Amino acid sequence: MGNWVVNHWFSVLFLATWLGLNVFLFVHAFLSYEKADKYYYTREILGFCRRTLRKQLDHNLTFHKLVAYMICLHTAIHIIAHLFNFEHYSKSRQATDGSLASVLSILSHQEKGEESWLNPISSPNMTVEYVTFTSIAGLTGVIITIALVLMVTSAVEFIRRSYFEVFWYTHHVFIIYFIGLGIHGIGGIVRGQTEESLNASHPHRCAESFKQWDVHDSHCKHPQFEGLPAESWKWILAPVVLYIFERILRFYRSQQKVVITKVVMHPSKVLELQMNKRGFSMEVGQYIFVNCPSISYLEWHPFTLTSAPEEDFFSIHIRAAGDWTENLIRAFEQQQSPIPRIEVDGPFGTVSEDVFQYEVAVLVGAGIGVTPFASVLKSIWYKFRHADHNLKTQTIYFYWICRETGAFAWFNDLLASLEREMEELGKVDFLNYRLFLTGWDSNIAGHATLNFDKATDILTGLKQKTSFGRPMWDNEFSTIANAHPRSVVGVFLCGPQALAKSLSKRCHQYSSLDPRKVQFYFNKENF
Fold first, then answer.
1. Cβ contact 255:278 at 8 Å
2. Which residues form the FAD-binding FR-type domain (predicted)?
3. Do 181 and 23 form a contact (C-beta atoms < 8 A)?
């Protein structure tokens, strides 16, 4: 008897516990995905720790995905184990061979006023489908499995990038998932022998003599079973309480009034908003969540701050990249209408906060991915203006890769100001920047070639000439390594995953095996 119970339920119990652990981690991962204040404060608290320890916080999205994959894997195994169990149950209930399994299966579902059954299939005619859709465990299992499938399939990169609203709304099915998970085990479908029955009829001495149960001179009686207490709610209670507290805090902060002080329309359908909010304080490279109630009450989108901490406002640049952003830009373009109300939550920390912790910083922005580095460059301009002697960074290499020439106009004035400031202070070697145009034709290239001898670039008006194509990263890293043979170099990227892999590979390739010599540390913005 004991072996039969163990063989059929061990896999389910073990996998349920393991699944519960993964869900516990998943809720924490979801909180890290939401990136509440705790993420920012944790980075600040760990500011005195080793760089490698602080960097682990910046892999929160990777952690979120890995735990989600583990939940999917163990959910699949858990379901398969249940299917095998119910197949055994069905066969045992229909068996007439007098085996231990068949005897246990016909135990009454209502014996002596207590539910003493072991097999949830109470009659030979009852189907597995009927038990699945009429029991609490079966019905909630189906619901949370469907919820999990919806969340996972809508989170693939193609849907997330192209149909963000689908991803956003579907991902919040997690509320149904956790509610279903919390009550999944209360039906008591996973059962065990009662303590009283275990003392009277222990499996080790009664399993072999099951045909003599309840015989007058037998010491073994029919076993009594009870549903095991639900455990899943214990795994999710603490993180869910933390999540609810965080949402209340974020709701309170988002209701604080935001004043839009300036609206600028840049080329390539990029909207710049300059705003003020009481008590708002930021660091370089941080980002905020933005909501526009006139477009959607529920959608919050992350945008990197392009202003510097030294400025008396905070700003973001929004590129048309979907229905929500297009509707927002259209709303601000309508001059006859009142300015739409904006709600802001944040700011939140990112890897770019650590730029000034490196002696040499390499900043790589692709398209609108330049925004976190605009904040960095602006802050540098203010630090030089106010002669900040605490600045640890000695040299910055800035690479901006764009598909179209109009994109360079977003921060032309900033780069021009930095050029003048560096020349006036005699620090022309402090900022080395390169602009790369990847979307060009023969007319643009020919025009640039004819005007190459001019003092300023024909496309941007800057002294640094625009390069056509993509950077040759081996040459760039080799040059930096030779120029700074004993420096710690921080490489920061806001761009696509393919570029991230390329830069990460070269950081390892060009870092010296001698820790006293040049070391490259790769950092990527994650949203």
1. no
2. 247-354
3. yes
pLDDT at 147: 93
Indicate which CATH number applies to the domain containing 302.
2.40.30.10
- Does 372 lie in the same domain as 319? no
Give the model confidence (pLDDT) of 151-171 as tens digits: 999 888 888 877 877 888 898
Rounded CA-CA distance 15/234 in Å is 16
Tell whether the model's pLDDT for residue 143 goes beyond 90. yes
336 lies in which domain range?
256-349
Position 243 in a domain: no
- What are 396-416's pLDDT values in tens digits? 898 988 877 666 666 777 777
Reduced to 3 states, what is the DSSP secondary structure of residue 222? Answer: coil
Domain presence at residue 3: no
**314 and 178, same structural domain?**
no
According to the per-residue pLDDT averaged within each range, which of 143-147, 318-322, 380-384, 415-419 is highest? 143-147
Is the pTM above the cut of 0.70?
no
Co-location of 512 and 402 in the same domain? yes
Residue 442: φ, ψ to 5°: -65, -30
Nearest residue to 444 (alpha-carbon basis) of 432, 460, 464, 456: 460
Residues with Cβ within 8 Å of residue 513, at least 6 apart in sequence? none
